[in-house]
Amino acid sequence: MKVMILAAGFGTRLFPLTIDRTKPAIPFLGKPLVAYVAEYVARSGFRDFVVNLHHQPESVKKALGDGSDYGVNIRYALEAPEILGTSGALDNARELLQNGTVMVINGKIISEIDIAAAAEAHQRSGAMATMVLKPNIKRERFTEVEVRDGFVTRLGPHAHPFTAEEIKDTEHGISVPLMFTGIHFIEPEVFDCFPRGVYSDIIQTFYLPAIKEGGKVAAHVTEAEWFELSTIPRYLDISLSMMKDADVFVGDNCEIETSAHIRDSVLWDDISIEEDVNLYRTIVADGVVIPAGSHFENAAIVRADMVRSCEEIPEKALKGYIQDDNYIVPLN
Predict the structure, then answer these.
(1) CA distance 285 to 303
(2) What per-residue confidence (pLDDT) applies to 170?
(3) How many domains does the chain have?
(4) Is the dihedral angle over the CA atoms 180, 182, 183, 187 positive or is it negative?
(5) Would the CA dihedral through 77, 89, 180, 45 be positive or negative?
(6) What range does the domain containing 305 cover?
(7) Which of 26, 159, 243, 311 is most exposed by smallest CB count within 10 Å?
(8) What's the pLDDT at 166?
(9) How many helices (H) and strands (E) does the chain have?
(10) Which CATH number goes with the domain that contains 6?
(11) pLDDT at position 167, please?
(12) Phi, psi (5° rounding) for residue 277?
């Protein structure tokens, strides 16, 4: 079974942390996020990987290399000049993925889902595809997935937050929708559904038509931990929750004055924190200097020169401002 790691995205909601790297290449507690994904998948015995590339492709290659550090073989599929979407990415890499089941996984997740068990469940199901699902307990903004007798019957709208009436009405319990984790298994015939050489989304080109026509799309439901790091607040919250016996992560080559006070924060590499600085719930990116006496909370900070060099700030990015030599993005 081969593995496709999706790593081509722009990471617009993570801007400006993704100015000089793609979303899966941002550091997560000292290691590129996509490296966590590669290690996670390799632990389940998978060895043949394909990784798609588009935005800042060298940042992913630098993070993963040829895969030998993880005991796997990695080949790359570049998408140019345009990004291609999930099914477009699979179509673009089909020569590297032929002749067998393919596991597809996003390169921006942290998970404890047993993917070996999910792969076995897929093979037992006889389905043309299996979606790995989990309860959306917090009813975050993910598509609702309906399941009956182990198979997906409907992909619905995004889940809505609990209403006051639902929270009060506990007599019959509160309905918890299922959500798609971005981990799935597809058989070779699924590639026949993909348009060739254009941007296309696998939900639209395969899953929705297959379900409507009665095709067998299996559901593997798990309650294991799963996190998607697609926004800056989510990145910070998950980083803090994954720290052990600490509330601050400090990367390599950082200089921090003893009078600085830092709590619930993530510091990348080559950072200088001067005297009497106060940081709370703050992400500080590579090479930033925090001037003496500064106070920041609920913010992400990158060097201002990096933002000035951008052609444009993505529409979905949180708004920020320049202060001294830094670009500050408030998170609330």
Answers:
(1) 8
(2) 44
(3) 2
(4) positive
(5) negative
(6) 236-330
(7) 311
(8) 54
(9) 10, 23
(10) 3.90.550.10
(11) 47
(12) -85, 140
